[in-house]
From TrEMBL:
It holds the Pfam family SoxD. GO terms for biological process: tetrahydrofolate metabolic process. It comes from the Bacteria. This is Sarcosine oxidase, delta subunit family. One of its GO terms (molecular function) is sarcosine oxidase activity. The lineage of its organism: Bacteria, Pseudomonadati, Pseudomonadota, Alphaproteobacteria, Rhodobacterales. Gene3D superfamilies: Folate-binding superfamily.
Amino acid sequence: MLLLECPCCGQRGEETEFHCGGEAHITREGPGADDAAFENYMFERVNPKGVHLERWRHVHGCGKWFHAARDSATLEVFGTYAAATHRPPEELLETIRAKRPGFKWRELA
């Protein structure tokens, strides 16, 4: 079972209280995007076995979006942070790298 803490309201709960919105820190292209950019947005995703950065929404709580870093193999949650940030907090990245040496994530390598 996945236990998450919403960084917006501080409530902690099971994953059924939240909704996963896919990969975090990607550019979400809209109707004005060219074909190549929209194709990249739709189909070019990472699906690692290991640490994954995701968007989550607290649907049965404050309703706000946030990001979470978790291990897709063990379900260990390393932390959550506000969705308005463009990259994970450095303390969170240090925690992940300490537990998972060699961790790389797209441009955050």
